[in-house]
Every structure is written in C-alpha cells, then in structure tokens.
C-alpha cells in the first residue's frame, strides 16, 4: 500500500467525493452495513495481538526454573548473545521480544482491517446504488397527466446516479490495482500460516497454556481470512446484481432515452469486481476452502516427513 500511496490517495479522494453528498439513504446504508462488521474486527484485533504477546511472554516462566538459559528457551527464534545466557540478559531479551512481536502483529492487524475497510466502503456504494435504482422506477406515476413529468424526474435522477456509478467504477479499478498484489500475498501467506498452525496443534495435543493460545490465535486467523473472503465475494456479487431491483419495476414504460440508459446500466452489471489478477490466487468463498485444503495437505506432508 505504501508503494501505491499516490493511487491510494486518489482512491481516498474518490471515497470522500462519494460520501460528501448530503444523502440520508447513503449514510444509512453505509452505517447499517459496516456497523456489525466492526464488532468482529475488534474481536479479531484484540485476540490476535493478545495471543501473540501472551505466547511470547510464556518464556518468562522459565526464569523461575533455572539460572542459565539457551536459545531454545525463547518462544521466538532469536539470538542476542552467546550461550549460556544469564537471567538478567534473558529477561531483557524476552521483553524486547514481547514489544517487537506485539508491534509486528499490530501492524499486520492494522493492514488487514484497513484493507477490509476499503472493500466494505466500496461494497456499501454498490448496495446503495442497487436500492436507489429500484426506488427511482418504483416512484413512477403511470397516469397520462403526469407521465411526462415523471419521466423527466426519472431521467434527472438516473443521470445523477450514472455519474455516481462512474466514480464507483473508477474506485473499483483503483482498488483492484492497489490490492491485486496484496491479495496474492494474503492467499499464499494464509496457506503457509494455517499449515504451520495445524502442524503446531498436531504436535501439541495436550491441554496446556500453549495449546489454548494456539487455538485462540487459529480461531482469530480463520475469522480474519473468512471475513476477507466473504466480503470480497460480496463485492464481486454486488457488482453483477446492481440493476436487479429496478429490473422488476416498470422501467419499460418510460421514454426511449430512459430505457436506453437503463439498458446501459444492465450491461454495466457484467463488469466484474474481481480484485485478484487470476482466479487461482483469488480471495473469495471458494478460495477460502481452497486455502484450508492446501494448508491441510501441506501439514500432512510435513507430518509424514517428521
């Protein structure tokens, strides 16, 4: 994202333009859609950071068990000094590990939440336009006296919505360019992460503190990956059903110009909001199961090699 910071600034400017409108329906749609997700993101962030910090802190338990320490006593692979390590040096090293691991996992969690937030804001725009299209044609008056005036109002509202749609499509293209490489990295990283988490759980079958920490971290990691896959899938689907609500209304009774504009919007539904450059490393609900299966297969391979 930092490498694409200029494009990211342009995307944020587009978001600011979309949300600067004094539109109660848009505000209600965004708040209703993103509100419930914030609770899951808070759970993910707190669980991930706390479990990693607590897991690294378990190295301090050995302080009360012996006087000299080796590199294997650390929870993370680290080497500050030669063996044997004195107690004071060991405590300082563990404290450095705690702050370092906490800082790194907090950066990762922040990047995940920020990425998901960009996706949610864009999906809420598609949800708003889907409802708005249906509402425009639902208000049509078919009486002969006001049909002309009704078509003028519909045409005006459609023009405004088309301009809104063009900004949203431009934002989608920017978001794809920003996240295309990140999506590939998250896909591959998730395969290795769940593979090694499964391996660690298989090697630690006893009920102890380390096992509970691994299970908590794994649950939060699965939740994080599922949320990204689910909302990327929803973004993909919302881009293809944009005119579904309006299609079942009486758009066919409008003037020719209105019908032509509406058909243009129907063809625009064929634009796919796919963020990944290829489907093999995409993030979607089918990709979620693919990642879990690949991680499980790799874990079985490591267990057989052990």
SSE arrangement:
Layout: H1 5-19, H2 24-57, H3 87-138, H4 147-203, H5 209-238, H6 244-247, H7 256-268, H8 285-305
Helix pairs in contact: 1-4, 2-3, 2-5, 3-4, 3-5, 4-5, 4-7, 4-8, 5-8
Q: How would you describe this protein?
A:
The chain has about 300 residues and is mostly helical. The chain has one domain. It contains eight helices and no strands. Helix 3 runs parallel beside helix 5 and helix 4 runs parallel beside helix 8. The radius of gyration is 26 Å and the shape is elongated. The two termini are about 40 Å apart.
Descriptive key words:
8 helices; 74% helix; elongated; 0% strand; odorant binding
Distance between the termini: 38 Å
Mean pLDDT: 80
List unreliable stretches of 5+ residues: none
Strand content: under 5%
Count of discrete domains:
1
Structural category: mainly alpha
What is the gyration radius calculated from CA atoms?
A: 26 Å
Membrane topology: Multi-pass membrane protein
Subcellular location: Cell membrane
Keywords: Cell membrane, Membrane, Olfaction, Receptor, Sensory transduction, Transducer, Transmembrane, Transmembrane helix
InterPro entries: 7tm6_olfct_rcpt
Condensed summary:
The protein is mainly α and 306 residues long. The protein is 74% helix and 0% strand.
